[in-house]
Amino acid sequence: MRIEHVAMYVNSLKEARDFFVRYFGAVSNEGYHNKKTDFRSYFLTFEDGARLELMNRPGMEDPEKAGARTGYIHLAFSAGSREAVDALTNRLRADGCEVLSGPRVTGDGYYESCVLGPEGNQIEITE
After folding, report:
1. pTM for the whole thing?
2. If residue 23 lies in a helix (H) or strand (E), which one and from where to where?
3. Which of 11, 81, 95, 110 is the most buried (most CB within 10 A)?
Protein backbone atom coordinates (compact mmCIF):
# COMPACT_ATOMS: atom_id res chain seq x y z
CA MET A 1 0.00 0.00 0.00
CA ARG A 2 1.15 3.58 -0.61
CA ILE A 3 -0.14 7.03 0.17
CA GLU A 4 -1.88 8.23 -3.02
CA HIS A 5 -1.73 11.91 -2.17
CA VAL A 6 -1.80 14.41 0.67
CA ALA A 7 -4.22 17.35 0.62
CA MET A 8 -4.22 20.71 2.30
CA TYR A 9 -6.57 23.66 2.31
CA VAL A 10 -4.97 27.04 1.58
CA ASN A 11 -6.30 30.56 1.27
CA SER A 12 -4.28 31.41 -1.84
CA LEU A 13 -4.21 28.52 -4.27
CA LYS A 14 -2.00 30.19 -6.86
CA GLU A 15 0.56 31.38 -4.30
CA ALA A 16 0.82 27.92 -2.74
CA ARG A 17 0.97 26.24 -6.16
CA ASP A 18 3.69 28.60 -7.36
CA PHE A 19 5.75 27.98 -4.18
CA PHE A 20 5.85 24.20 -4.70
CA VAL A 21 6.48 24.55 -8.43
CA ARG A 22 9.30 27.10 -7.96
CA TYR A 23 11.18 25.49 -5.07
CA PHE A 24 10.33 21.78 -5.21
CA GLY A 25 9.88 21.11 -8.92
CA ALA A 26 6.19 20.22 -8.76
CA VAL A 27 4.18 19.99 -11.95
CA SER A 28 0.64 21.35 -11.64
CA ASN A 29 -2.49 20.29 -13.41
CA GLU A 30 -4.75 22.95 -14.90
CA GLY A 31 -6.87 23.08 -11.77
CA TYR A 32 -10.41 22.13 -10.95
CA HIS A 33 -13.36 24.40 -10.15
CA ASN A 34 -16.77 23.20 -9.02
CA LYS A 35 -18.95 26.16 -9.98
CA LYS A 36 -21.83 24.92 -7.84
CA THR A 37 -19.85 24.89 -4.54
CA ASP A 38 -16.94 27.17 -5.57
CA PHE A 39 -14.49 24.46 -4.47
CA ARG A 40 -11.16 24.81 -6.30
CA SER A 41 -8.06 22.64 -6.34
CA TYR A 42 -4.75 21.90 -8.00
CA PHE A 43 -2.96 18.56 -8.03
CA LEU A 44 0.80 18.90 -7.90
CA THR A 45 2.98 15.98 -8.95
CA PHE A 46 6.59 15.67 -7.85
CA GLU A 47 9.49 13.94 -9.61
CA ASP A 48 9.04 10.61 -7.81
CA GLY A 49 5.27 10.52 -8.42
CA ALA A 50 4.18 11.83 -5.00
CA ARG A 51 1.19 14.16 -5.24
CA LEU A 52 -0.08 17.09 -3.19
CA GLU A 53 -3.60 18.44 -3.59
CA LEU A 54 -4.05 22.12 -2.77
CA MET A 55 -7.68 23.04 -2.11
CA ASN A 56 -9.79 26.10 -1.41
CA ARG A 57 -13.46 26.69 -0.75
CA PRO A 58 -15.62 29.43 0.74
CA GLY A 59 -16.07 29.56 4.50
CA MET A 60 -12.82 27.91 5.52
CA GLU A 61 -11.55 28.43 9.05
CA ASP A 62 -7.94 29.54 9.42
CA PRO A 63 -6.87 29.17 13.06
CA GLU A 64 -3.32 29.97 14.15
CA LYS A 65 -0.93 27.08 13.46
CA ALA A 66 0.93 26.30 16.67
CA GLY A 67 4.33 24.67 16.11
CA ALA A 68 3.67 21.86 18.59
CA ARG A 69 0.17 20.58 18.02
CA THR A 70 -1.59 17.33 17.24
CA GLY A 71 -2.22 16.37 13.65
CA TYR A 72 -0.09 16.87 10.58
CA ILE A 73 2.88 19.12 11.29
CA HIS A 74 5.02 19.29 8.14
CA LEU A 75 5.68 18.08 4.64
CA ALA A 76 9.18 16.65 4.16
CA PHE A 77 11.09 16.75 0.87
CA SER A 78 14.34 14.94 0.15
CA ALA A 79 16.74 17.23 -1.71
CA GLY A 80 19.21 14.39 -2.34
CA SER A 81 22.33 15.67 -0.58
CA ARG A 82 23.53 17.93 2.21
CA GLU A 83 24.71 20.43 -0.39
CA ALA A 84 21.25 20.50 -1.96
CA VAL A 85 19.63 21.02 1.48
CA ASP A 86 22.00 23.94 2.11
CA ALA A 87 21.42 25.47 -1.32
CA LEU A 88 17.61 25.23 -1.20
CA THR A 89 17.49 26.52 2.38
CA ASN A 90 19.68 29.49 1.42
CA ARG A 91 17.52 30.17 -1.65
CA LEU A 92 14.32 30.12 0.41
CA ARG A 93 15.89 32.38 3.06
CA ALA A 94 17.08 34.84 0.40
CA ASP A 95 13.58 34.91 -1.06
CA GLY A 96 12.09 35.85 2.32
CA CYS A 97 10.99 32.51 3.79
CA GLU A 98 11.49 32.11 7.51
CA VAL A 99 13.98 29.36 8.35
CA LEU A 100 12.86 27.70 11.58
CA SER A 101 15.87 25.41 12.04
CA GLY A 102 19.03 24.18 10.37
CA PRO A 103 20.46 23.05 8.24
CA ARG A 104 21.71 20.68 10.92
CA VAL A 105 22.07 17.06 11.92
CA THR A 106 19.18 16.14 14.22
CA GLY A 107 19.41 13.84 17.21
CA ASP A 108 18.06 10.96 15.14
CA GLY A 109 20.66 11.48 12.40
CA TYR A 110 18.78 13.43 9.74
CA TYR A 111 20.44 16.34 7.97
CA GLU A 112 17.62 18.81 7.55
CA SER A 113 16.26 22.29 7.71
CA CYS A 114 12.73 23.46 8.36
CA VAL A 115 11.16 26.53 6.77
CA LEU A 116 7.76 28.17 6.89
CA GLY A 117 6.07 27.80 3.55
CA PRO A 118 2.85 29.35 2.31
CA GLU A 119 0.40 30.36 5.02
CA GLY A 120 2.65 29.21 7.88
CA ASN A 121 2.86 25.55 6.88
CA GLN A 122 6.13 23.89 7.88
CA ILE A 123 8.28 22.38 5.14
CA GLU A 124 11.18 20.08 6.07
CA ILE A 125 14.07 19.70 3.65
CA THR A 126 16.20 16.58 4.13
CA GLU A 127 19.19 15.12 2.30
Report:
1. 0.92
2. helix 13-24
3. 110
